[in-house]
Design brief:
Elements: H1 2-137, H2 140-200, E1 206-211, H3 217-226, H4 232-248, E2 255-260, E3 263-268, H5 273-282, H6 284-300, E4 308-313, E5 318-319, H7 322-335, H8 341-403
Antiparallel strand pairs: 1-4, 2-3, 4-5
Pfam families: XH
Protein name: Factor of DNA methylation 1-5/IDN2 domain-containing protein
Organism: Ilex paraguariensis (yerba mate)
């Protein structure tokens, strides 16, 4: 019995020792696992920190890239604006060069005229020298008296020329002021005609046209072919309104410079992406309508980029003059009975506009004649002064000889 108990005790002791060793082994394994876990956690934390750092660097670089892209867009927009300004300046310079051509021709004509007058003055000067030689043959006293009388006559003529020149200058200023006032009245009359013509000339040759406004007929035709009867009209209005907004957008500049008709002009850039897409999707008629509105708005209102009203000759496809519009209204009034007071008032305004236009034409002709007269008088003025200086010098010489 005791042996059994001892055996059980030994077994229990061996089992306890074995279990203790196993516990120690497990503890060793657990410690190693904890160490590896700590290392893994530290590595993971380090990787997470590096990841966060990389993410922050990525966000920082993305912000830099977005800022650079924004700056590039701004610089591109500024460059396009400056390019547009330079193109406008070049066009203005070309226009000024064209305007200078007739002025240069007029200046050349004036130079030729002055050379001719200078030759005439030389002839008169030679004749005057001959007269001086004749005066020298006289006695000193007679020469002195004759020179004095001639000087007095020349002084009187010079005073008369000065008065005449002052009168001409005053008349010139009055005519210039009158011309400015007449031009201002003509512009007001043109604006008044533009405001009342839509109610008077609905089916005539001269009517009011909105320059830069997209023509809707091509949009209606193409939408009638592409869409159903229920929606073609709405789609036509939407499409024409969309392209009208694009035409009015100042940032869209589908133009390029080309040498045409002997000078540089702005024409449509057919390689523009929007115009190419419009032509391929909606056809040539719609494309032509948009191109025409772009050319009109670039000619009549390039800075504001909105449609403006203008008197238009629809028969000849050009800008109508004020005279044509007035004649058209008069013809319309002849075809109806003037029963209303409004027609009488309108006839009065038309008559006043006609008188103003005739006055402007007459004023311009008077201005040209007056300008030529002033130039001629100034030349005579200069010649008279030179003659007086020569005579005075000769008189001094004669008096010195006489005194000696």
């Amino acid at each position: 019995m005791e042996n059994d108990i001892s055996e059980e005790i030994r077994k229990a002791r061996r089992l306890a020792i074995s279990l203790a060793k196993e516990v120690d082994f497990k503890n060793q394994k657990l410690w190693e696992l904890e160490r590896k876990c700590d290392e893994t956690s530290a590595t993971l934390e380090r990787m997470v920190a590096e990841k966060n750092k990389l993410h922050q660097s990525y966000e920082k670089e993305m912000k830099k890239a977005q800022f650079i892209e924004l700056q590039n867009r701004k610089l591109k927009h500024d460059f396009e604006c400056e390019t547009r300004k330079m193109q406008l300046i070049e066009l203005e310079n070309e226009r000024l060069k064209q305007d200078l051509v007739p002025q240069r021709k007029e200046l050349e004509q004036r130079i030729k005229k002055l050379e001719k007058e200078e030759a005439q003055n030389d002839l008169e000067r030679r004749n005057l020298l001959v007269e001086k030689q004749k005066l020298k043959a006289l006695t000193p006293l007679q020469s002195d008296c004759g020179v004095t009388i001639q000087i007095d006559d020349l002084k009187k003529k010079l005073v008369d020329k000065d008065d005449e020149l002052n009168d001409m200058e005053a008349l010139n200023q009055a005519l210039i002021l009158r011309e400015h006032m007449s031009n201002h009245e003509l512009q007001d009359a043109r604006k008044e005609l533009i405001s009342v013509l839509p109610n008077l000339l609905d089916a005539t040759t001269i009517r009011v046209k909105r320059m830069g406004e997209v023509h809707q007929k091509p949009f209606q035709d193409v939408c009638l072919q592409k869409f159903s009867l229920e929606e073609w009209e709405v789609r036509s209005v939407e499409l024409s309104s969309l392209w009208q907004e694009k035409v009015n957008n100042p940032s869209w500049q589908p133009f390029m410079k080309a040498f045409k008709n002997g000078k540089w002009q702005e024409v449509i850039n057919e390689d523009d992406s929007k115009l190419k897409e419009l032509r391929s999707q909606w056809g040539e008629a719609v494309y032509s309508a948009v191109v025409d509105s772009l050319l009109e708005i670039n000619e009549y209102n390039p800075s504001g980029r909105y449609a403006v009203s203008e008197l238009w000759n629809f028969k000849q496809g050009r800008k109508a003059s004020l005279k044509e519009a007035i004649q058209c209204i008069i013809q319309q009034l002849k075809n109806v009975k003037p029963l209303k007071r409004r027609s009488h008032q309108l006839q009065g305004k038309i008559h006043q506009m006609t008188v103003i236009e005739a006055e402007v034409v007459g004023t311009q002709e008077q201005f040209q004649v007056l300008h030529s007269s002033i130039l001629f008088i100034m030349m005579n003025h200069v010649c008279a002064i030179r003659v007086i200086e020569g005579v005075l010098g000769e008189s001094v010489c004669v008096l010195m000889k006489f005194s000696s």
